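Dear colleagues,

I hope this message finds you well. In preparation for our joint manuscript, I am sending the ACY2 Aspartoacylase (Orthonyx spaldingii) sequence together with its predicted structure, so that both groups work from identical material. I would be grateful if you could confirm receipt.
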Amino acid sequence: GVEVGPQPQGVARADVLDKMRKIVKHGLDFVQLFNEGKEFPPCTIEVFKIMEKVDYPRNKNGEIIAIIHPKLQDQDWQPVKEGDPLFLTLDGEVIPYQGNCTVYPTFINEAAYYEKKQAFVKTEKIKLTAKHLRSSVS
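The corresponding structure tokens are as follows:
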């Protein structure tokens, strides 16, 4: 599957549709080249691995008591280090990130995830290495 976004629910955006078409075309080009016997050399790529989902701070009744901090809003895939602001309480108190490694939040403050109790997803950046690849069918 391919998910290209973010975009609000029920909205069709030309720029996002264009990105989706390009990535599907690249995928189909790869399949065609692979099926034709093209050999792909080894490679290393950086990817983001999901660590955990992070909920909004809540009170004892389960009500949200803080919102995404303005410095984090719209910063998907950007590094967050210990002490960087994550949330802002309704009283104006900053709740910082407390962790021992840099993380890369994504799906930050997405409306579709409020009901799932998800403010954002913490990811870590890792490298994946692929060996050379070639179809065994010629």
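For the figure legend, we might mention the following. The first strand starts at residue 43 and ends at 54. The mean pLDDT is 91.

With kind regards,
E.M.
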